[in-house]
């Protein structure tokens, strides 16, 4: 169970997150910085709810507390070529 | 053998035999798909489930969400990288390539003794402490 991958982009397991959260009793954002969960290609959109759920379980920290996982545009990865308008946008 | 993982007749989607066949290549091998397929569905019907490997660890990846959310299925299409196989319609003569392991700045010359993640780093440090 603990070997379940939570963040697939950066290959962070449930075990990694739990251990780090237990050890440092830190915020979800600190977990992200320490383990890289949510820092990968998809922009953390896939594992963010899972990371928040683990944090709630381990440290009791609810999503949307003082130092939450950041959400910011763009809402999906875009290539620089797209931003430059050199490609049909998808 | 190819394309035998398909629904041949469906009350809504119709008959498979009515659909136009197209050819495409995936990692240099030629496959057959049908018009309206996504890259992912065409490959799945051909029994191909691994669309890429993790850039650093080389572990296999395929369809995960299948709705364009997670980018786990990204492939290279006609030299364009980062294309989602689950959302992109397959076109005749498309050249699809899987994602490979990339050269990594963390790849160790000391027979992989360097940690790959922070969690591994902490573990390693603790092990070292334990040994002393
Ligand atoms: S499988 Fe998730 S984006 Fe294609």
From TrEMBL, chain A:
Superkingdom of this entry's organism?
Bacteria
Q: Which InterPro entries match?
A: BFD-like_2Fe2S-bd_dom (IPR007419), BFD-like_2Fe2S-bd_dom_sf (IPR041854)
Positions of the BFD-like [2Fe-2S]-binding domain: 6-56
Pfam families xrefs: Fer2_BFD (PF04324)
User: Can you say what this protein is called?
Assistant: Pyridine nucleotide-disulfide oxidoreductase
From TrEMBL, chain B:
Lineage top rank: taxon? Bacteria
Gene3D superfamilies assigned: 2Fe-2S iron-sulphur cluster binding domain, sarcosine oxidase, alpha subunit, N-terminal domain
InterPro entries from the UniProt entry: 2Fe-2S-bd_N, 2Fe-2S_ferredoxin-like_sf
Question: Cross-referenced Pfam families, in alphabetical order?
Answer: Fer2_4 (PF13510)
GO molecular function, a single term? iron-sulfur cluster binding
- Asked if the keyword Aminoacyl-tRNA synthetase belongs to this entry, the reply reads no
Ordered alphabetically, the record's keywords are: Oxidoreductase
- This protein is called what? (2Fe-2S)-binding protein
Instruction: State the organism named in the record.
Output: Cerasibacillus quisquiliarum
């Amino acid at each position: 169970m603990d070997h379940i991958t939570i963040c697939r982009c950066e290959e962070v397991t449930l075990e990694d997150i739990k251990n780090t959260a237990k050890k440092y009793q830190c915020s979800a954002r600190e977990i992200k910085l320490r383990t890289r969960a949510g820092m990968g290609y998809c922009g953390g959109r896939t594992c963010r709810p899972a990371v928040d759920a683990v944090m709630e379980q381990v440290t009791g920290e609810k999503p949307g507390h003082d130092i939450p996982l950041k959400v910011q545009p763009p809402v999906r990865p875009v290539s620089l070529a797209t931003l430059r308008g050199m490609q049909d946008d998808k | 053998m190819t394309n035998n993982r398909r629904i041949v007749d469906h009350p809504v989607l119709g008959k498979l035999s009515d659909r136009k066949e197209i050819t495409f290549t995936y990692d240099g091998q030629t496959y057959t798909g049908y018009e309206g397929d996504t890259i992912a569905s065409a490959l799945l019907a051909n029994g191909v489930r691994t669309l890429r490997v993790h850039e650093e660890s080389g572990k296999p990846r395929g369809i995960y969400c299948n709705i364009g959310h997670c980018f786990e299925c990204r492939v290279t299409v006609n030299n364009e990288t980062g294309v989602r196989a689950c959302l992109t319609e397959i076109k005749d003569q498309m050249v699809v390539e899987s994602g490979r392991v990339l050269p990594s700045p963390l790849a160790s010359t000391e027979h992989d003794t360097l940690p790959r993640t922070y969690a591994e780093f902490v573990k390693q440090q603790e092990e070292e402490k334990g040994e002393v």
